[in-house]
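User: Teach me something about this protein's shape.
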Amino acid sequence: MENLANQEATIVVADCDIASRGLLGQLLQSEGYQAIDACNGKDVEKIVASRKIDLALLSVKLPNGNGIQLCRAIKDNPATSLLPVVLITDFGNLNDRIAGINCGADEYLAKPFHREELLARVRSLLRFKHLIDEIESAESVLFNLALSIEAKDPYTLGHCARVSSLCVRLAQDLGFPQDQHEALRRGAIVHDIGKVAVPDSILLKTGPLDDEETKLVREHPVVGERICAPMRSFRFVLPIIRSHHERMDGSGYPDGLKGKDIPITARILTTVDVYDALTNDRPYRTALTSEKAFETMQTEVEKGWLDGTIVTLLRKTIAAGRE
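Assistant: First, the predicted structure itself:
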C-alpha cells in the first residue's frame, strides 16, 4: 500500500531558497513522490485550490507573506483543513515553532534536518492523509445512497440539504462545538438512510400504511444506525440517526425515549425536519408559511411530541434571517 501511496502522492514544496527548494524536490522525487515547486504563498494557494495535494512542505520564510500565515489559511479553509502541513524553519526558532503549533501545523522541521527524519515524517503524514481520503470516500458513498433515496420522491428533493444547513445554523446559535456542527450536518443528510430497506411501494404510497407497513418503516432508524456504525467518524451521528423519530412524551420510536433522554442533536434534527416538511409542498397539501408552520409545531409541543425550547430557538433563528 505504501508503494502505491508513493506513486500517487503529490507534495507541494514552498521555500524562498531556490537551492533548498530544489534539494527537497529531488529528495522527494527519488522516493517516488511527485513534487510541485512553489516560490511563494500565492503559488501554493493556487496549486492547492486547483488540484489534489497530499502534503505541503512550507518554509516559514516566504516572499509576500510567510508559511505560518499560509498554514493558518489552509487549516481555516474547510476544503483544505485536513491537508497535512510541515513547516520548515532555520535553526529551530522557538517563536516560529510555537506560532506553527498554534496555526495548526502537523509537523515542524528545523534546518539543517536529516534526510531520513524528513522522509519518515512525510511517510507518516501521507499514511494519515490516505486514511482520511478513505474515510471521505466511504462518507461520499453513504451520502450518495441517502440522496438517492431522497430523490425517489420529487416532493422531498432538496430536503436533506435544507435541513442540514438549518441544523448547522441552529447549532451555531446555540454555541455548540464544531464536532456537533459536523454531526448535525452529516446526520441531516443520512438520517433516513435506513429507508433503503423499505420497499418503494411503501415509501411512495399515497394512502395510509397498514400495520405491517408501519412496522417496517419504523425499523429504518435502527437499520440506518447499523449501516453507518462501522464509520468511526460517525460516532456523534449515530444517536441522531437512531433517535430522530423519538418524541418528548416517550411515544416515539424505536426506543420510546422521553424528554432529555433523547440526544439534543436528535431533538434539533427532528424540529428542523418538521419545519422543512411543513414549509414545502407535499402531495396532500401546499407549503405553509413560516408563521403557520410554527403554529402547527406549537400544537405538537403541547401534544408532547416536540421540544418546545428548540422550537422557540428555531423560530428566533428564522426570524433573524438565518434560514
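Now, about its shape. Confidence is low (pLDDT under 50) at residues 1-6. The radius of gyration is 25 Å. If you'd like, I can walk through any region in more detail.
User: That's plenty for now, thanks!
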